[in-house]
């Protein structure tokens, strides 16, 4: 309890959505992924490296 109020911190989480920035994909010429393998390839292709 903090200041007389019951509080909790989540310790388990499940991702049920994946968001992407279409503008970044288009800027880098990467098609919108539709499978997990395509998503991994798109992430690699859209990553800027120095």
What would your notes on this structure say?
This protein is mostly helical. The chain has a domain at 18-50. It is 34% helix and 0% strand. It has two helices and no strands. It has helices at 22-27, 36-46. The termini are far apart. The relative contact order is 0.14.
Descriptive key words:
50 residues, mainly alpha, 2 helices, 34% helix
| Secondary-structure-derived class | mainly alpha
**Main beta sheet strand tally, sense and closure:** none
- Helix-strand string: HH
Secondary structure: number of strands: 0
From the alpha-carbon coordinates, what is the Rg to the nearest angstrom? 18 Å
Total count of helical runs of at least 4 residues: 2
Considering DSSP H and I runs of 4 or more, what fraction of the residues is helical? 25-40%
What is the average per-residue confidence, as pLDDT, rounded to a whole number? Answer: 86
- Straight-line N-to-C gap: 48 Å
Overall geometry comes to elongated
Given as residue ranges, the uncertain stretches (5+ residues, pLDDT < 50) are none
Work out the strand percent: under 5%
Task: Briefly summarize what is shown.
It contains two helices and no strands. It is mostly helical and 50 residues long. It has a domain at 18-50.
Layout of strands and helices, then pairs:
Layout: H1 22-27, H2 36-46
């Amino acid at each position: 309890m903090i200041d007389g109020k019951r509080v909790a911190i989540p310790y388990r989480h499940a991702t049920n959505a994946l968001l992407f920035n279409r503008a970044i994909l288009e800027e880098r010429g990467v098609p919108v992924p539709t499978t997990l393998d395509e998503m991994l390839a798109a992430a690699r292709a859209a990553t800027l490296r120095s």
